[in-house]
Amino acid sequence: MNDEQFEYLKSLVETPSVTGTEYNVARLVREYVADIADEVETNVMGSVHAVLHAAQPEDNDAKVPSVLIAAHMDEIGLMVHYISDDGFLYVSAVGGVDAGLLPGLRVDVHTKDGDLRGVVGRMPIHLIPADERKKVASIDKLCIDLGMPAEEVKKRVRTGDTITYGVGCEHFGQGMAVSRAFDDQAGVFIATRVMEELAKAGDSKADYVCAATVQEEIGCRGGLTSAFSVHPDVAIGFDVTHATDYPGIDKNKFGGVECGGGPVIARGPNINPVVFERLVMAAEEEGIAYQLEAEPGVTGTDAGPMQVQQGGIATGLVSLPLRYMHTPNEVISLADVEGCIKLLTRFIRDLDSDISFVPGM
């Protein structure tokens, strides 16, 4: 990944996009694909659909398959639900927020007039009764201090304003990166970079729809509506998955996935068997290290609802290994990011008019 590409990734993850407020990331996506895609639209939900048409087929009567890759733009966060008389903010979680991580954290409150830096307040340990010190305070017991008079807070902050962790993206260790919101802005980065690589190759026999979707963190709502409206021949959900390569995780229970081990290809009832095998074949033909993940039920990703739209869609799931999901410091391997781009690009380039995704046929 070159410096320019890393800056694009950094811009995605550092742009606030709490579920329901994805529009600023959507703008970055539209800007990035503007000179690459043949068509770009944003639907009423806020999801962006960028289309790259197949190269002109030798046989004009041949059916051109369509493939959708969906990666969600939203991130978890907090929402203001009450402003106290003394100017402290009380909040609710948007998505899966771990309350135990919040005390003492710096956050950014996103208002109509700009961002305000805040601190999640909690009594110091000296003042907490001994029998309470080991307990995790629930979110409703925490408040956010903006360091300004109550009248100023009430003038600038409104109920419903969203809040993100006050951290950014940086290189980390050897070939790693750390940030909030890699779930799933890294996926948005990958899906748009796949379009760029397909455009450079210029030989795809399939139409590619890059869907940057909304509201995944509260029920995969953007993936559902995008898959219904696009209704492609094949859909790939792209998201992050739990790396289990650090202390404290039971691999017997959660499987073995490593940062740096390559893209993760899911297998299970949510996954079309033909799509799975072709993803594996693409990885092996391209010489890409890959990992497998068992998904015995419906995945908690956009792949879940996409599979059952209209008469059904042949669906796959590719994931980026990620440590410390839904924390302010999610960790990824940049080599895995590149592997995902190569895998998905090869998968799409291998599609042709003769492909059938009917299992067992």
Helix/strand layout:
Elements: H1 3-14, H2 23-33, E1 39-42, E2 48-52, E3 66-72, E4 77-83, E5 89-94, E6 106-111, E7 114-121, E8 143-145, H3 150-156, E9 162-165, E10 170-172, E11 176-179, H4 182-201, E12 207-213, H5 221-230, E13 234-242, H6 251-254, E14 264-267, H7 273-286, E15 291-294, H8 303-306, E16 314-322, E17 330-333, H9 334-349
Parallel strand pairs: 3-12, 3-13, 13-16, 14-15
Antiparallel strand pairs: 1-2, 2-12, 4-5, 4-9, 6-7, 6-9, 7-8, 10-11, 11-17, 14-16
Strand content: 25-35%
Largest sheet: 8 strands, mixed
Q: In total, how many beta strands? A: 17
- End-to-end Cα distance: 40 Å
The 3D shape can be described as globular
Integer average pLDDT: 95
Estimated radius of gyration: 21 Å
Order of helices and strands: HHEEEEEEEEHEEEHEHEHEHEHEEH
Specify the number of helices: 9
- How are strands sequenced across the largest beta sheet? 1-2-12-3-13-16-14-15
Structural class computed from helices and strand pairing: alpha+beta
Q: Your description of this structure?
A:
- By secondary structure, the protein is of the alpha+beta class.
- It has 9 helices and 17 strands.
- It has helices spanning 3-14, 23-33, 150-156, 182-201, 221-230, 251-254, 273-286, 303-306, 334-349, and strands at 39-42, 48-52, 66-72, 77-83, 89-94, 106-111, 114-121, 143-145, 162-165, 170-172, 176-179, 207-213, 234-242, 264-267, 291-294, 314-322, 330-333.
- The strands form 3 sheets. It has an 8-stranded mixed beta sheet, with helices on both faces. Strands 5-4-9-6-7-8 form a 6-stranded antiparallel beta sheet. A 3-stranded antiparallel beta sheet has the order 10-11-17.
- The longest helix has 20 residues, at 182-201.
